[in-house]
Design brief:
- This protein is α/β, with parallel strands linked by helices.
- The protein has two domains: 4-95 and 190-268, Periplasmic binding protein-like II (D-Maltodextrin-Binding Protein, domain 2, 3-Layer(aba) Sandwich); 100-186, Periplasmic binding protein-like II (D-Maltodextrin-Binding Protein, domain 2).
- 36% of the residues lie in helices and 23% in strands.
- It is built from nine helices and twelve strands.
- It has helices at residues 33-41, 55-63, 122-134, 162-167, 178-186, 203-218, 220-230, 238-245, 252-268; strands spanning 4-7, 22-27, 48-53, 69-73, 84-93, 100-104, 113-115, 140-142, 156-161, 174-177, 190-197, 247-249.
- Strands 1-3-2-4-11-5-12 form a seven-stranded mixed beta sheet. A five-stranded mixed beta sheet has the order 8-7-9-6-10.
- Strand 7, helix 3 (122-134) and strand 8 form a beta-alpha-beta unit.
- Helix 3 (122-134) packs across helix 9.
- The protein is globular and about 55 Å long.
Length: 269
C-alpha cells in the first residue's frame, strides 16, 4: 500500500521563505477519521503534511524519522530510543472495540493455526498475549499478505483489524473481539495506538494539535452522517462504533493498561 499524502506544502505567512512542513502520519481507518477531520479543518492545516497508511507502515515511518509525529501502535514505543507522547489522545477501548477481531469457522479451542494481520503490530502482540495468558492455547502462527482473509477457514483462524474487520463481522460463525477478551482477562481498558514523536513536541504545535483533535472529536456527528452517505459500511452501526466502542482520549486508567500490555509483550520474548 502506498502512503497517501493528504495535506502538504507549508508556506510561511511571515516571509517568502518556504518553511519545512510538520509531517504527521495516521492510519487510514474509520477509527482515525475524527483526528483526520481535525487536521484537515483546523486553522494550521496549511502548515502540515498529513500521511495516511497502515499501522505497521506508519510505525516504520516514525522509526526511520521520516515523520515528526504519528498515531502509532503502542507496541512500537519500546523500539524507540526516545519517545514523546502527545498527552490525552489516542485510539483505545473500554471493552468491545469491534474493529480488532479473531474470526474463525470453529471455536478458538478447536483451531490449529492463526493468520496474523500484516497491517498490525499491537494487535498481533495482543493476540499472542491472549493466546498464552487468557485462552491458554498454542496455535501455529502464520504471517500474512494482502488477501489472506480468504484463507480463514476450517481449523485456521485469522486476526483482522481496521475497516476490513468491520466488513467481516457477519461472515464467520465465531468472532472474538480482542478489546472484550482483554477486558475479561485484566478488567482494564486497552490502548491500540497513541500519538508519538521521536523528538520533543514544540509547545505551540502541541497546543494546536490538541485543539485540532478536539475539533475532530466534537464533529463526530457530522462524520457519521458523511460516512452513512458513502454507504461503505452498510448494516454496521457507525454511530455506536465512533461514539462508544472507540475511545479517543487517553486517561490514567488507559495508560495503566498500556504499561501492562507493554510488560506482557516483554514476557513473550
Amino acid at each position: 500500500m502506498t502512503t497517501e499524502n493528504i495535506l502538504s506544502s507549508r508556506t510561511s505567512t511571515t516571509s517568502n521563505t518556504c518553511m519545512p512542513k510538520y509531517k504527521i502520519a495516521l492510519v487510514s481507518y474509520l477509527n482515525s477519521r475524527p483526528f483526520l477531520f481535525g487536521l484537515e479543518n483546523y486553522s494550521f492545516k496549511n502548515e502540515i503534511e498529513v500521511l495516511l497508511d497502515t499501522p505497521a507502515r506508519i510505525a516504520d515511518l516514525l522509526l526511520k524519522k521520516e515523520v515528526d509525529l504519528a498515531l502509532v501502535p503502542v507496541a512500537v514505543i519500546p523500539k524507540m530510543k526516545k519517545h514523546f507522547m502527545l498527552p490525552g489522545f489516542g485510539i483505545g477501548c473500554s471493552g468491545e472495540v469491534q474493529s480488532v477481531c479473531v474470526f474463525a469457522e470453529s471455536k478458538i479451542e478447536r483451531c490449529e493455526s492463526i493468520l496474523l494481520d500484516y497491517q498490525s503490530r499491537t494487535s498481533v502482540l495482543l493476540t499472542k498475549i491472549l493466546l498464552q495468558k487468557h485462552w491458554k492455547l498454542s496455535l501455529r502462527e502464520k504471517k500474512t499478505t494482502q488477501g489472506y482473509e480468504n484463507n480463514i477457514r476450517g481449523a485456521q483462524a485469522g486476526l483482522v483489524i481496521g475497516d476490513r474487520a468491520l466488513m467481516l463481522r457477519d461472515s464467520f460463525p465465531y468472532m472474538y473481539d480482542l478489546g472484550t477478551e482483554w477486558k475479561k482477562m485484566t478488567k482494564l481498558p486497552f490502548v491500540f495506538a497513541a500519538w508519538v514523536s521521536n523528538k520533543k513536541i514544540p509547545q505551540s504545535i502541541s497546543e494546536e494539535l490538541t485543539s485540532a483533535f478536539q475539533l475532530g472529536i466534537n464533529s463526530i456527528d457530522k462524520l457519521i452522517k458523511e460516512e452513512k452517505l458513502k454507504k461503505n459500511f452498510a448494516g454496521f452501526d457507525i454511530e455506536y462504533y465512533l461514539k462508544h466502542a472507540i475511545n479517543f482520549s487517553l486517561d490514567k486508567e488507559k495508560l495503566e493498561a498500556m504499561n501492562l500490555f507493554l510488560k506482557y509483550t516483554e514476557d513473550l520474548n
